[in-house]
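This section describes the prediction task in plain terms. A model, or a person checking by hand, is given the sequence of a single protein chain and must write out its three-dimensional structure as a string of tokens. No templates, partner chains or ligands are provided. The sample shown here is typical of the held-out split.
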Amino acid sequence: MDIRIGILNSPREINFETSQSAAEIEKVIADALGSGAAYFRLSDDKGKVYIIPVAAFGYIEVGSEVSRRVGFVA
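The expected answer:
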């Protein structure tokens, strides 16, 4: 799943792919926003951990779970 996270006052986005489902990612973010946590953590397929401060969190775009087709379409 492709993830894009926008950070406030930053022109760049954080982009990565993860094996977590869209529901898991939504739960992590909703729990962090609802509990008043200072940050939330997401990890990618390669084992990197991303710690995003809730105060600077702008938006998140979660891609589809369907794998991309490779090759030419006739």
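For orientation: Residues 2-62 form a domain with the SH3 type barrels. fold (CATH 2.30.30).
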